[in-house]
Amino acid sequence: MTKVQVQSSGSELRITLPEEIVKTLGIHAGDELFISNAESGAWISPYDPRLLKVLRSTEKVLAEYEHTLRELAK
Fold this sequence. Notes:
There is one protein chain. By secondary structure, this protein is an alpha+beta fold. The chain has one domain. The chain is 42% helix and 24% strand. It is built from 3 helices and 4 strands. The protein has helices spanning 19-25, 49-64, 66-73; strands spanning 7-9, 12-14, 33-38, 41-46. The chain has a two-stranded antiparallel ribbon. The chain has a two-stranded antiparallel ribbon with strand order 3-4. Strand 1 (7-9) and strand 2 (12-14) form a beta hairpin. The N and C termini lie far apart (34 Å).
């Protein structure tokens, strides 16, 4: 886990990613990232259109079968 500080830049908030995280993610200036909510906080990953397609498909399935999945989870 890496600690970063949130900084203010006009009406935006920014974080600076340490070099080790940049290398791990394989990102460069100008790249797009996914930031997703998770139970424990959030996760960051490089933008991947294939992943976006999978996530959207998953959201559709979860919405369509929400009641059934809730019943199965009991």
